[in-house]
Design brief:
By secondary structure, the protein is mostly helical. The chain contains eleven helices and no strands. Helix 1 crosses helix 2 and helix 9 packs antiparallel against helix 10. The protein starts with 16 loop residues before the first helix and ends in a 6-residue tail after the last helix. Bound molecules: fe (ii) ion (2 copies). The site of one fe (ii) ion (FE2) has 5 residues, from helix 2. The site of one fe (ii) ion has 8 residues, from helix 5.
Length: about 200
């Protein structure tokens, strides 16, 4: 199904898709806005293939990067105000826009569906246990048609065959990438790897 043909039911958000798309257009640069639209469409397709509500996938895909362009101070204030783990202060936007950004999605877009909020929260770092919707957003962000990295075709093929194998593939690639590039690894990224990869035979 094409994203633009979806009619929202008010079950998860009390605005139309057009209004939500408008909010994202306001919050993001053009290139990130276009990325978000591609993630939405990819998430809808993964939802249809995996028995998940496409409306929920559409909303989660659209809002996953809602906080990506917020200034650091917004995240620092939220970490303090909501008494989140202070270790978060050692990281930056790459981690914050999901792990903290879900709070802005909840407060500013009026989304209270816990699965959508968790899909935003874990879309970069993953989680030990992820619902299908959470797996879908994690994978759609990684394999949307604008992505171009050496393993992307393999990632697309694996994910099409099995959503869970896709998650394991990404968890491994992400950890390898961070280590190879001397980048810091957020603890949850290692927990995700340990939960999804060892013992996975694919
Ligand atoms: Fe993101
Ligand atoms: Fe993204």
């Amino acid at each position: 199904m094409k994203a633009k043909d979806l009619v929202y039911s008010n079950k998860y958000i009390s605005m139309s898709r057009d209004d939500l798309v408008g909010k994202l257009n306001d919050a993001l640069t053009t290139s990130r806005f276009n990325h978000v639209l591609r993630v939405e469409q990819t998430a809808i397709e993964l939802a249809e293939a995996n028995g998940v509500d496409p409306e929920r996938a559409s909303i989660a895909g659209l809002v996953h990067d809602y906080a990506k362009q917020r200034p650091d101070i917004d995240f620092i204030n939220a970490i303090k105000e909501y008494h989140l783990d202070p270790v978060l202060l050692d990281y930056g936007n790459a981690i914050w826009h999901g792990v903290v950004g879900w709070l802005f999605v909840k407060n500013e877009l009026g989304i209270n569906d816990i699965e959508i909020l968790n899909a935003v929260k874990y879309h970069t770092v993953g989680h030990e246990v992820m619902t299908k919707l959470e797996q879908i957003v994690y994978m759609a962000d990684y394999i949307e048609p604008g992505r171009d990295f050496p393993e992307v075709e393999t990632a697309r093929r694996v994910t099409k065959k099995s959503l869970q194998d896709g998650v394991a593939f990404q968890a491994k690639q992400t950890l390898s990438y961070l280590i190879e590039n001397n980048k810091p690894v957020f603890p949850q990224t290692i927990i995700t790897y340990n939960s999804w990869v060892p013992g996975n035979t694919d």
